[in-house]
Specification:
alpha+beta, 7-stranded antiparallel β-sheet, 7 strands, 15% helix, globular
């Protein structure tokens, strides 16, 4: 049986894209976490270990090749943005000071796959 928190995920091991790096950097700089230097220092060492299978661009991180746990995740940054005219939420999480996931979800709900928002489209909640 697949644990409830792992449903809809698939292994997807790869480096972060430049677009993901830009979003993570922006979210750290505009987030609530006060330890921005520590979080920013992790970005070059991050990779994607899993992704959501629903069609959203949500990804889960490894740091230096080791999976960052999702249990106990805390919000670093939470904003709205748009992708091709659709409103999306974009959130960055950390677990025990380690960046753990980048979540992007459709606000109206959609079954159609969509990509990441551009940094210029991000705005406060």
């Amino acid at each position: 049986m697949v644990p409830m928190n792992d449903r809809g995920l698939e292994p997807h091991r790869r480096p972060l894209t430049e677009h993901e790096r830009q979003l993570v950097t922006w979210l750290i700089e505009h987030g609530t976490n006060q330890d921005r230097l520590q979080l920013n220092a992790q970005i070059p060492r991050l990779s994607v270990r899993e992704r959501c299978t629903c069609g959203c661009p949500t990804v889960y991180f490894s740091l230096d090749g080791a999976a960052v746990p999702r249990t106990g995740e805390r919000l670093v940054s939470d904003h709205l943005a748009s992708v091709e005219g659709m409103e999306v939420g974009i959130m960055l999480f950390e677990t025990d000071g380690l960046l753990s996931s980048l979540e992007v979800y459709s606000c109206p709900g959609t079954d159609v796959p969509f990509g990441l928002p551009e940094v210029a489209s991000i705005r406060p909640l």
